Model the fold of this input.
Amino acid sequence: MTTKEKLSEHLPIERFGIFINRIDFDNLDKFVRMLVAGHIARRGSNTVRSEIDSNDSSSLTYTFLTHIIEVGSLKILSDCKLITTDREVMHVNSFVMALSMNISMASSLKAKGVFDSDLPVFFAMEPLEILIERIVNHIENALIDSTYINSLVKNYLLNKI
Done:
């Protein structure tokens, strides 16, 4: 099942369909798979699995996975031209994007054999809500343009793999 199909199972289409249909899920999944694979190649699958199993939110793996959702969501929101100054719309867009990234990340981690769960997501809703607020704050408190987003992607994601 694809990320879009899993997402559509959990969100009412009548409320979120317009946002879901504007997301380039192929690009999102490709980006997440590249980051997950790079992190595992750099740290080793045994280390990544151990850090995931320990549920230690201060580990390098957990920190990197939060960056995938936080920074990756900004990148994909920008790529799909879903960044807006309307706080309510931005919160909905950020929620849909963060949940999409969370689903994609869980699938990628499972495919690499470092995450065993029957759940379709990696992070539960409570930590995901914190990441959503951070995404919205980035957009509200900074000049969001491709240079800013590319800098975040480089510093918090690409330089870490």
